[in-house]
Amino acid sequence: MTHRFIDLPPEALGFAQTSIDRADKYRDNAAFLEDARSYGTSLTLVFIGDMPLIMCGNTPLNVLFTFNNVPFATDIGEPIFLGLENGNPRFAIVLPEQCLPELSVREDVKAVDLRTLAVKSLVTPQHLNLLATAQALLNWHGKHKFCANCGQKTKLKSAGWKRICDACQSEHFPRTDPVVIMMATYSDKCLLGRSKHFPQGMYSCLAGFVEPGESVENAVRREIMEETSIKIGSVAYHHSQPWPFPTSLMIGCLGQALSDEIKIDGLEIEDARWFSKLELAQIMNGTHKEGITAPTKMSIANHLMQAFLDF
Amino acid sequence: MTHRFIDLPPEALGFAQTSIDRADKYRDNAAFLEDARSYGTSLTLVFIGDMPLIMCGNTPLNVLFTFNNVPFATDIGEPIFLGLENGNPRFAIVLPEQCLPELSVREDVKAVDLRTLAVKSLVTPQHLNLLATAQALLNWHGKHKFCANCGQKTKLKSAGWKRICDACQSEHFPRTDPVVIMMATYSDKCLLGRSKHFPQGMYSCLAGFVEPGESVENAVRREIMEETSIKIGSVAYHHSQPWPFPTSLMIGCLGQALSDEIKIDGLEIEDARWFSKLELAQIMNGTHKEGITAPTKMSIANHLMQAFLDF
């Protein structure tokens, strides 16, 4: 049982690259943050709602604006401090939705959803990570304006890394939901399923939230049992991936099935099937006879499938 | 790079064993839940505040009560449904704190905090897991009575696995915070640190919350860099452990250090040192010349230390 050491994440795995020094020591340094906005070297991501703005042009697209160059003159509120890129401050700001009409007539900037940027590799891997960090934080702020403990309004603190409640003194930290995503294998075959929300023909790995009181390994076993009635023995960790839709951490695993008779739950998934290695290879390269397809290479599901082919 | 498959968790690792079939299909089945409380085979954990009640006696202590035998006649509210143990329903209930004076004179039942039950192995590993699940859920309910989205009161639903807001229709699910806990190694030595909150003489693995936009591997690198200025290259997953204080999932990792000059941050930890394998073995068996001690075997930190000795 030798440990499997991981150096860099696979290049295509979306959002998982290292981007910047998060420099958390500056999050509560008001003087630094105030100054930093005026540096010529400070740049900021700009969101409208949950969509980042890109500057139109050749790929990789630029997503970092100078504060002087934020495309709409408006009150941008308190920026989120994301850290330092080669020593230079990086922020994220959100524009109010009333900028949307004005945006629609601009040809130099455009709002593009983050999934599209990732699937089509439209920005650099480092900027994808920066966007994922900002989007996860913004998704959290968007749904946590009030104190879950006492119901009063909370306010943003620590440059976006905390919210506090003046009424009951609670501190609230960004939420990150661990999700297991896993492929069960049984001798030469692997288990893939599809939810009814998937694009037609696509099969992927099963997945679900880790529940209170569960280890990663037990969450893998429970989810596969719930969705397909397949019993899993040993579980191996493969890799992880931040997934800001809205605030997840994907924990990719492989599971050794102890049985192969599938019974679909009919709730979370509409189908699950065993596929041979040969079929999986065809699915991955788009030549499967039934037209079955795999999720994109930016997803950890694709990398779990590849790991099985590489066994 | 072969995957490392894990079958059962180490027996001593607290809270990490499988206990019961969570049977999530019954969480929204009001008729089943209502009936189940009257079954003679239904049993319930009983908490006062965040302390489980135990029946005094020989170890392993019994922590499961019949509903008729709940020690204080009081309104127990809506029980949390934990699942089925050999087909028999298991619940958790919370007694109001006004039961505390009455409890203090009872000799047959006692409230004991969950950490003590785990450290001293006072209940079975399966019941430790059941208690951890209940305690994580109760901790979450305790701090989430209001809707973070709109500030109105929320109510418990799905037998304790959800809260809903009638005002804005938001659904809130239990929070589980992923935490990386890791040991850096550098040739024959390993890095341990101590927080000022630790018992005197104890050193342990470094740890910290996974932040939005981070993979597990990058969180490991960032935390060790922040706390000790040690740069980490490759990272290996070791094991995971539910940790209901209040609602964490510990993700245990090993990290290969690329440098060995320690600079303490002075904030999160008060000291960090490199220990040789020989010293670590002495720490683990209580013979270190400076009296340095390790955390208990129920913690994943202890198992990470053992993993390094076993290399």
Write the layout of secondary structure elements.
The structure is a homodimer of 311-residue chains.
Chain A: E1 5-6, H1 30-36, E2 43-48, E3 51-55, E4 80-85, E5 88-95, H2 100-104, E6 109-111, H3 114-119, H4 125-143, E7 155-157, E8 162-164, E9 171-172, E10 177-186, E11 189-194, E12 206-209, H5 216-228, E13 232-243, E14 248-257, E15 271-276, H6 277-285, H7 300-310
Helix pairs in contact in A: 6-7
Question: Overview of this structure, please?
Answer:
The structure is a homodimer of 311-residue chains. With 311 residues, chain A is an alpha+beta fold. In chain A, 23% of the residues lie in helices and 28% in strands. Chain A has helices at residues 30-36, 100-104, 114-119, 125-143, 216-228, 277-285, 300-310, and strands spanning 5-6, 43-48, 51-55, 80-85, 88-95, 109-111, 155-157, 162-164, 171-172, 177-186, 189-194, 206-209, 232-243, 248-257, 271-276. In chain A, the strands form three sheets. In chain A, strands 10, 11, 12, 13, 14 and 15 form a six-stranded mixed β-sheet that branches. Chain A has a five-stranded mixed β-sheet with strand order 4-5-2-3-6. Chain A has a three-stranded antiparallel β-sheet with strand order 7-8-9, with no helix packed on it. In chain A, a hairpin with a 2-residue loop joins strand 10 and strand 11 (189-194). The longest helix of chain A has 19 residues, at 125-143. The radius of gyration of chain A is 22 Å and the shape is globular. The mean pLDDT of chain A is 95. Chains A and B meet through strand 1, helix 4, helix 5, strand 13 and strand 14 of A and strand 1, helix 4, helix 5, strand 13 and strand 14 of B. Strand 13 (232-243) of chain A pairs antiparallel with strand 1 (5-6) of chain B.
